[in-house]
Amino acid sequence: MCGIVGYIGRRNALPVIIDGLKRLEYRGYDSAGFTILNNDEKYLTYKKAGKVKDLEDSIDYNVYTGNIGIGHTRWATHGEPTDINAHPHFCMEGKIILVHNGIIENYKSIKTKLESEGYIFKTETDTEILANFINYNYKNTKDFVKAVQVSLAGVEGTYGIACLCRDEKDKIIAARKGSPLLLAVGDGEFIIASDASAVLNYTRNVIYLNDGEMAIITKNSHILKTIENKEINREIEVLDMVLDQIEKGGYEHFMLKEICEQPESIQNTFRGRINFTTGVAKLGGLEKVLPRLLEAKRFIITACGTAWHAGLIGEYLIEQFCRIPVEVEYASEFRYRRPIINKDDIVIAISQSGETADTLAALREAKKFGATTVGIVNVIGSSIAREVDAGTYIHAGPEIGVASTKAFTSQLMSLALITMMLAREKETLFSKTLIEMAQELKQIPDKIQRMIDRKEEYKHIAERFKNANNFYYLGRGVNFPVALEGALKLKEISYIHAEGYPAAEMKHGPIALIDENMPVIFIAPKDRTYDKIISNIEEVKSRKGIIIALANEEDDNIKNYADYILRVPRTLGIFAPILNIIPLQFLSYYIAVFRGNDVDKPRNLAKSVTVE
Ligand code: G6P
Known about the structure:
This protein is an alpha/beta fold and 612 residues long.
């Protein structure tokens, strides 16, 4: 995790760095810092525990006049989030200045070696060890580039770095392995950043660095090399993104903006990919692997967090409608349990960021065994998107709020499109059914808008439960993963303990916790499990639990059972999770706001987890 920005050019570096760090704060926000090479050739560093805003509030911009600098916003892995552990870090002699995103796994052996050479360490971070290691190698090589190369060749783990050297003040060296990094090429200026949001204010021309690559930038030049010192020629890409897409646009929080953007983001996911008259779904990015998808004996979906919940829903859809066996694996578990993967398996990685370390590693594991890999990814040009054999972008647009919302519904829409595409090819659904699905799909954005228009109702219920200590979320079938995702949303931003369960499993343990203080959310749309879920509601009600039912707009019967009702429009089963999650997103959002929490930057979390 962590966000990195480096600037070299004609402007004052600090405002560019602070602006970039603010945009990268979703990657970590427990401390921040920067180093600027001032016009008098002196390095000025300031770093502090807390958010980038705290850092900014305590500096005087006039003091920092230089136009070379590096900055960092941190999500702690090694060492507590304190001022001293904040980045940049220095080597003992102060010659090497470093910001780092990732984990140096062999930090202990490097530290021991350096200690035997007389090096002393002030912080608890692996980054300080790397700074000293570069310094150590600089002494031997007398060359900044070589020193970085030799050091990184000896490092195990992951890194995205930006580095300065007092003896070669004119350059910044950046390098990556496992942590994202790009080089933005402006007019007489360069910016190094963890992602494009930090550079869009200045330019849309970027070069993505791949693992094992470095950029050496000065005011007038940029050179790309591998860590092994081979020169690289790479075309500049022009980003198809505008800053507006990543700004709050009048909303109080990014999360609220992103919840309310879902009619549009969903439309962007299916635009041009479905024919409403014939029911034919076409995903260009998957075409080249379509024969393999159709012949596959098994799909394995791997992901983390919210994307994993989307994967569980994908399992219901693909098994039910395409009759292909699907397994869904936590990426972090999958890679370490010696999974059985065959050449004719399809491994699908779902990831908003396309950078989650565990998902990426699971994908690489699958590739080793010769499986065909497919990505369902939001961030264009991200590592997962680049490494898969084929894939589909969900086109949800930049998601900044740490709690994932619009990416989730777009992941579900992508899975629904894949299901429709495969079901047609495999003839597991009649074309009449596919046309009905396509017609219904067209209405999904309007139905989401109907719920956005009802948000005050959801807010009202949120206010009633703002002080709850626990919550259950229960659903059946395809709505069971919706219950898991609803519970996760609440935990993430309100810090209320919440659990999702299949409604019928309730009897096998969790029911012991039901009393008059326990709110239980039942996802109870009018589908074939409706009567069963009503029985489950009765079980909770008879033990005095508080019933909050998520029910269809026209369902009057539910009033006989529920204390509170979250209304949702009715749709076909394939799209139901897309609608049913929306009131639960609003509920979590408003509860967190009522509790005074920082919704966009919940404690201890980060949007993109690029460490294991
Ligand atoms: C983090 C985020 C979650 C996200 C998960 C997977 O934990 O806080 O919101 O679901 O990572 O991220 P990905 O980018 O792979 O979808």
